[in-house]
Write a structure and sequence with these properties.
It is built from eleven helices and two strands; from the N terminus they run H-H-H-H-E-E-H-H-H-H-H-H-H. The chain is mainly alpha-helical.
Length: about 300
């Protein structure tokens, strides 16, 4: 049982790391720009498609990743200039409608360019093995690489946000964007920087997940829902909150799906327990969100200046 718990805990951390990469950029976009971007999950999908295409072209995953990241950044900046720049002063309903329409357009766009059939990316040879955990159980090296890359990215974001001049402006913008503008900061350039950073982080998450999941149209839609849950739990505009909340959501979701039916089998008939477990497991993260908000309405680590 402990072996199974350790395995699923690692899976939960890995899932949480991917959620963090998507949520970190989105929480800054939401916190600084006050922009509700439903199309952020599309950037996760675009990152996966760019990685699949460049890996097939070069024959090497790492070269494909190195080409995909700047491509996602350029694509995100293009979207910011053509679409999102015109939404900053609009109300939230118009932002929701516009970005939802963008989801439909881009999902259809990848079908036209790449086809509707799922694409696959081979795991690089250097990361294709597994390591022993306890007993006979082993864990894939590539999933550990995802965890390591996510932790390194989180550390880099922490240093950027907390120990650089750019980070100082980002923190100030998350707390009081109008005051930052009044002090002479080019808010338009700040918005462009934040959006580009968020796009590249989401694309990086899509790139890292491409070798272990199918690359297909609409793959970012379900991730987006969980990303908003992470932002609400962690606190809007808080990268630290996004990290803690993403790990919590990843663990609760993964462990709940695995051990929920096992726990219920001790209380009811096995077939009924299995059915109840499959029904209740997806609800656990929303129960977690409700529990956190009942004690911390602004999230676990709200950005400075937000109501606690």
């Amino acid at each position: 049982m402990f072996n199974l718990f350790l395995l699923q805990a690692l899976n939960g951390v890995q899932f949480g790391i991917l959620l963090f990469l998507v949520a970190a950029g989105l929480t800054l976009i939401f916190g600084i720009m006050n922009l509700i971007n439903l199309a952020h999950g599309v950037l996760y999908m675009v990152g996966a498609y760019f990685t699949a295409a460049f890996t097939a072209w070069t024959g090497d995953f790492f070269l494909g990743l190195a080409l995909a990241l700047p491509a996602v950044l350029a694509f995100g900046l293009l979207l910011e200039r053509l679409v999102f720049r015109h939404l900053y002063e609009r109300d939230h309903l118009e932002q929701v409608l516009a970005t939802f329409g963008l989801i439909l357009i881009l999902n259809e766009g990848v079908k036209i360019l790449f086809g509707a059939a799922p694409m696959s990316v081979p795991v690089p040879d250097i990361l294709s093995g597994s390591i022993p955990l306890i007993g006979f159980m082993r864990y894939p090296v590539f999933r550990l690489a995802i965890i390591a890359a996510g932790l390194a990215t989180a550390l880099g974001l922490y240093l950027l946000v907390n120990h650089t001049r750019v980070g100082m402006r980002l923190r100030a913008g998350a707390s009081n964007a109008p005051m930052v503008s009044a002090l002479g900061v080019d808010v338009g350039r700040l918005f462009m920087l934040v959006f580009g950073l968020g796009a590249m982080l989401a694309g990086f998450a899509g790139a890292m997940v491409a070798p272990i999941l199918s690359v297909e149209p609409g793959m970012g839609d379900s991730v987006l829902i969980l990303t908003f849950v992470v932002i609400v739990i962690g606190g809007v505009g808080s990268v630290r909150g996004a990290f803690v909340a993403a790990i919590l959501v990843g663990l609760v979701d993964t462990l709940g799906r695995t051990f929920g039916p096992i726990v219920l089998k001790s209380l009811m008939d096995p077939s009924a327990a299995s059915q109840a477990g499959r029904t209740l497991a997806p609800m656990l993260i929303y129960i977690l969100m409700a529990a956190v908000l009942s004690f911390r309405p602004a999230g676990l680590f709200p950005a400075k200046g937000a109501a606690a």
